Amino acid sequence: MPKKYSAEFKERAIRMVLDHQGQEKSSRAAAVRAVSQALGMSRETLRGWTRQVEIDAGTAAGQTTDEREEIRRLRRENAELRRANEILKTASAFFAAELDRPTTK
User: Fold this and answer.
1) 74 and 53 fall within a common domain
2) Which residues form the domain of 98?
3) pLDDT of 1 over the 60 cut
């Protein structure tokens, strides 16, 4: 799925929120609201980005980006192994049935 915002835009938006919050001594919500309106984007998207930066920095509780990627990778690997296991079970049943059939010569 193509990304709507570039990495540079995302970094700039997050930096603007942090700067606005520091300069204006405003709350995070007010900074996100002001920056999102200035950039013409969703407040919730920007809030999520800034929240994830806090988590990655260790200043907030939650899953880091690296942990999320690892979980995603492990889930894909798990699904692939389950499919392979089903194929092997089916093949095993097929060959067991072949061995049980009487042969005629």
Assistant:
1) no
2) 64-105
3) no
